[in-house]
Amino acid sequence: MPHVIVKMYPGRSERQKTQLAEAIVKDVMAIAKVGNEAVSVTIEEITPGDWAEKVYKPDILNSPGKLYKKPGYNPLE
Fold first, then answer.
1. What gap in Å lies between CA 9 and CA 73, rounded to an integer?
2. Local confidence pLDDT in tens for the 77 residues of the chain
3. Count of domains for the chain
């Protein structure tokens, strides 16, 4: 039962978020070998001012064992 959480800045339309979720579901189904009913996707909009505290520190900096793709930025520098 894969559940994918996407955290991103606000500003995308509902259509863009739906398309993103559909693309994620398609790839998860193909790679994880699960059916559509097993996959769920949540999109959380995080403001730029909250990004370092709500995303970068807890999800990126402090979770190296869970991070499979590192970003090319560091908002703390």
1. 15
2. 999 999 999 999 999 999 999 999 999 999 999 999 999 999 999 999 999 999 999 999 999 999 999 999 999 98
3. 2
Using CA atoms, how far residue 5 sits from 9, 76, 77, in Å, is 13, 23, 26
Please tell me whether residues 38 and 52 are part of one structural domain. Answer: no
What is the residue range of 14's domain?
A: 3-45
Query: What does pTM read for this prediction?
Result: 0.92
Active-site residue among 2, 10, 58, 71? 2
48 among known catalytic residues: no
